[in-house]
Amino acid sequence: MNNRDKERLRRIPSIDKILSKKEIKHYLQKLPRKFVRECCNKLLNEVREEIHRKSRRGFSLANFIKDLDATLTKESFSIRKVINATGIILNTNLGRAPLPENLIDIIKPILTGYSNLEYDIEKGGRGKRYDHLTGLLKELTGAEDALVVNNNAGAVLLCLGTFAKGKEVIVSRGQLVEIGGSFRLHEILKTSGAELVEVGTTNRTYIDDFRRAITADTRMLLLSHRSNFRMVGFTNDPSIEDVVLLGKAKGLITMMDLGSGLLISMEKAGFENEPTVKEIVKKRMDIVSFSGDKLLGGPQAGIILGNKELVAMMKSSPLSRALRIDKFTISALEAILRIYLYSDNPVKELPGLSMAFLTEDVIKRRALELKRGIKLAAKQKLNVEIEKGFSAMGGGSMPGELIPTYLVTLKHKRLKETKFLRLLRENIPPIIARIEKDRVVMDPRTIHPSEIKDIKKAIQSICEKN
Fold first, then answer.
1. Would you list the domain boundaries of the chain?
2. What is the spatial distance between Cα 143 and Cα 281, in angstroms, rounded to a whole number?
3. Which end of the chain is more exposed for a tag (fewer CB within 10 A), N or C?
4. Fold of 83-96+355-465
């Protein structure tokens, strides 16, 4: 090491001097001192290593503060906000349904203080946590009773474990689905202690297949929503009505794992194949289960609707306690259900549905705004175009249904698409886009207008360095 580099190393301030700088004070007011100190030490060590490698000329407080700001943001929490530019509305990897902005304000007093979670204020004694949701769900769906657990896989497990342990459950081969996270219906059946009886073929199953498979050990007829895929062509499924009639005639429980949980019709958004929960309940299925964080637009939850006696038995099952929800889920889900019940325009208030219902004209205007901002920030280092494309609901909802949209396509004049995509992910906040036809693609449908400035800033930074 030469004398110049030694002098540069000597000029690096000590950690105590760094922490005493006025530029650091606001970080210390917001974050634990130990955490800020660790991040500062990490950056100082990086400066020293870069001087040794001769890739840095010396210490600069201005650059250090800039790096510290990025490091504190990146390291402060593992889970953090990202910008969803994929066009997949219920993106499971990105948290599925975004919640309304004002929801946190509504439930904040419950989360930060005490509440009547299991306290009956009128009677002055112990209450039931599910009572906060049961009435709302019954009114919205027409069901006799309701129960909510941690997720829909848990809901299916509870139903099967309560009624079919050691008994047979008949399922069509075409509905033995696997969805994200390796959730396989037949594995849930096995875990519950029920015995799976497969009927029909992959593409064609008839009500007679169910009827012929019934034995003295049969306890349940189970239908399942085909999440993430659609079967077309030479196909057949028994109608819900026929399954219900067969179940009643044979004294068997009928259940439908509905999956997504749609409470309002999506026909105005161009979707025709997804039934609402209320429509399924009207068909007199004994039990219906679905997710809270998909089309419903709420927090993660597994919602069970059905026959009052059957729901009561599930509530008393020891497994229900293991799967029970906490005050956050209950308060958040109650707020969402009240939007459906009392709002004049639920679609406007629920971000996921709002995105799905955006018109092509609105999407086109947003695409033009995004294109202008990116072109200005890119300084001629990007080819930026707009073209027609498709968004998707995602989250195992409405498989095969695509929503017309306008895409903003980006082609960097030097960077490969994979590297460009990685640099977007490394931004703070991370920008999650996709690659199509050797270009990075952003879909304005899932980008909030307030996030465009963050995208412009990220593009400017990437193009300045590359």
1. 3-76, 83-96+355-465, 103-347
2. 6
3. N
4. Aspartate Aminotransferase, domain 1 (3.90.1150)
Per-residue pLDDT band at 440 (split at 50, 70, 90): very high
Angle at which helices 3-10 and 33-52 cross, to 10°: 170
DSSP letters for 334-389? HHHHHHHHH-S-HHHHSHHHHHHT--HHHHHHHHHHHHHHHHHHHTTSEEEEEEEE
Give, rounded to a whole angstrom, the gap between the first and last alpha carbons of the chain. Answer: 30
Once rounded to an integer, what is the mean pLDDT over residues 274-286? Answer: 91
Can you say whether residue 84 is alpha, beta or left, with left for phi > 0 and alpha for psi between -120 and 50 degrees?
beta
Give the model's pLDDT for residue 399: 63
- C-alpha 349/C-alpha 343 separation (Å) is 8
- Looking at CATH, the fold of the domain delimited by 103-347 is given as Aspartate Aminotransferase; domain 2 (3.40.640)
Contact 159, 304 (CB under 8 A): yes
Contacts of 55 (CB under 8 A, 6+ apart): none
How much is the pLDDT for 455?
Answer: 97
**Residue tagged 């895929």 (tokens):** 229
Q: How far is CA 433 from CA 229, 383, 429, in A?
A: 22, 16, 13
Average pLDDT score, the chain:
91
Distance of alpha carbon 407 from alpha carbon 443, whole angstroms? 5
pLDDT exceeds cutoff 90 at 232: no
